[in-house]
Specification:
The strands form three sheets. The chain has a seven-stranded mixed β-sheet, sandwiched between helices. The radius of gyration is 25 Å and the shape is elongated. By secondary structure, it is an alpha/beta fold. Helix content is about 45%, strand content about 15%.
């Protein structure tokens, strides 16, 4: 019963105390699907639809609503009155176990299909190669990437003159939760990111929640270093004014600080390696290997 209630809290708007939802019962499933908070992935719906056929017990073919199966409806006194009550309790318990198993399968399916959300803040003067490599590569992985402007408008003129249209202003993304915030470098773009109060608040929340932060080129030193978010060992663009900000500057193209969940890289030439490592952290090494092969790297 607890497993089913957790599933309903994840997937449905309906009150958790309203125990009319039954993932194995067609009519209740149809009513519940109408109240989905987000469009249900097809495979999740298929899990619900196929659950009944996977159960061979005829007693479970058309189970009653969960409200009938509540354990509170059968007391210990009821059980001791008659062996028939004991049998009925066992049948209802087996129904609950089957419902929980079905619900857990659906939760696993729903979780595996969840799309990681990535925020890429930019501004006038941000590095265009780094920005495009991050957004393009992570989109190939299957991430939902949002490009947010930290400047005065959504249209940003990048460090070499390329114009990039952001999806939103950074203030519009302030209340959203992202699995990764990836900061491109470039000057003076990195300084604008550093001076954005909204982005600074989001970065601190990201760090405190142990969600991932990526920074490349000037961004590790200029943005993360300025706000106390730089790990002890990191890399950045190999200029003395940036490297001196890092306690233990590394020469590697990409450095992962697993403890702080911070990934850093050096510059335009390491952008693809950086983006692939970000994707690997969000998905898996196998997925990153497949994307690398597709991109002929």
């Amino acid at each position: 019963h607890a497993c089913v209630q957790q599933l309903r809290q994840i997937c449905f708007k309906s009150d958790a105390q309203d125990a009319t939802f039954d993932p194995l019962h067609q009519s209740h499933r149809r009513d519940s699907l109408a109240s989905l908070t987000t469009p249900a992935p097809a495979s999740v719906l298929a899990t619900f639809t196929s659950s009944a056929s996977q159960l061979q017990d005829p007693e479970l073919a058309n189970p009653p609503p969960l409200s009938i199966l509540k354990p509170a409806r059968i007391s210990l006194i009821d059980v001791t009155k008659s062996p028939r009550n004991s049998v009925r309790l066992m049948r209802r318990a087996s129904m609950l176990i089957a419902l929980c198993a079905s619900s857990l399968r659906a939760v696993r399916s729903f979780s595996s299909l969840r799309v990681p959300r990535v925020l890429v803040p930019i501004a006038d003067g941000s590095e265009e190669i780094e920005t495009s490599c991050i957004t393009d590569t992570l989109t190939r992985f299957g991430c939902a990437v949002t490009v947010a402007s930290c400047g005065d408008q959504t249209l940003c003129v990048m460090s070499r003159g390329l114009k990039v249209q952001a999806d939103v202003m950074i203030e519009e993304a302030a209340d959203e939760v992202f699995d990764l915030i990836a900061l491109p470098g470039g000057m003076p773009g990195a300084e604008t990111l550093r001076d954005s109060n909204t982005l600074t608040t989001m970065l601190h929340a990201q760090s405190q929640s142990n969600r991932q932060i990526g920074a490349i080129c000037a961004a590790p030193a200029v943005v993360l270093g300025a706000h106390g978010l730089l790990p002890q060992q990191a890399t950045c663009y190999p200029a003395a004014k940036f490297r001196e900000v890092i306690d233990q500057p590394a020469d590697a193209r990409v450095v992962v600080s697993a403890k702080e969940n911070v990934i850093t890289s050096q510059g335009p030439g390491t952008s693809l390696d950086f983006a692939l490592k970000l994707g690997e952290r969000l998905f898996s090494a196998e997925k990153a290997k497949a994307i690398r092969k597709e991109m002929l790297i």
